[in-house]
Amino acid sequence: MDIPLAKPQALIVIPSAATLPLTEPAGHPGLSTGFYLVEMAQILEELGDEYDFTFATPDGHIPQLDINGLALASHAGAEAGAAMASAAAAQASGFDVDVFRAERPGLVARRDRELALAGHYLGRLPVSEALPNSDKEVVLLRDDLVKSMQDLPEHTYPSVEQLVRRHRDPEDSFDLGAFDFVHLPGGHAPMVDFVDNPWIGELLHTLRENGALISLICHGPVALVSAKYRVRPDGTIVTDLQHAFTGAGVTAFAKSLELFVLSDGYLNLPGEKVSLGYFIDDALRDAGYQVQTPADPGAIEIVWEEGVRLLTSNGPHAMDEHTARLRTLLPRR
């Protein structure tokens, strides 16, 4: 009798931060945030039959789903810009959510599939609060989504530190070298828990040293800022500004788009100036990376840095092309 071969392995590290700090307005407690499902779900859908996935978070906490990442325009791929403009026009006055959804059946169906994947792989998740300038359709979606998750099991997530320590433990069979690739999705949560995180840095280097492909999208590439850190077996943190990833070509969510999200998008607080502590692309440049962003901020940008097996792309609109490129780079079995 033939024994079925074990599936290849993939690691997904989901940011778990639930609050996005603001530098303005002064004294603001921060905005409810989370991760973007759309920046992970296509990988689960296309590779789920081929791969076994391990899910982790930086601190071992349950990740929070960002309701803003479920806006239908976010599921439009390369047509996201046109879909966003269409949504804004439809929601300007006299908004009817049933008509809005009926006019976008393909996007609704895709979102439904992705939420089903989330339920299957991730179980019950907390959902970020709707913000004053959130898309009107997702504001109405949120309560139904929370209710639909109530009967799902709550999963546990190892922390990145636990993964590294298990990998180092000679009595533990867990091996980071078993993963063909790691994927880190975005949303705004990575701005909180992917940066200044020595264990994220150690994980990225260990995976690189073991030949894994590193896949990052949108705000996820900010994890590379933490690559300046290594963590020795005794827990000592070492900083090296000339590490193996230094100088790599990358892309990420552009400052021009972030400024739009702050002034006119869901991070806008009516009547207030809203500022973040930093921008992703600036942070990557300051950390020594060669950041590539398209002249048209709504265009898709994908960068493959073969020397360190690093694949980055610049936003949820790039997810389909990112996944297709990822597939071509993975081992053929």
Automatic annotation (TrEMBL):
SUPFAM superfamilies: Class I glutamine amidotransferase-like. InterPro entries: Class_I_gatase-like, DJ-1/PfpI, Prot/Nucl_acid_deglycase. The keyword Lyase applies. Keywords: Lyase, Stress response. Transmembrane segments: none annotated. The keyword Lyase applies. It comes from the Bacteria. Residues 176-255 form the DJ-1/PfpI domain. Belongs to the peptidase C56 family. HSP31-like subfamily. This is DJ-1/PfpI family protein. It comes from Amycolatopsis melonis.
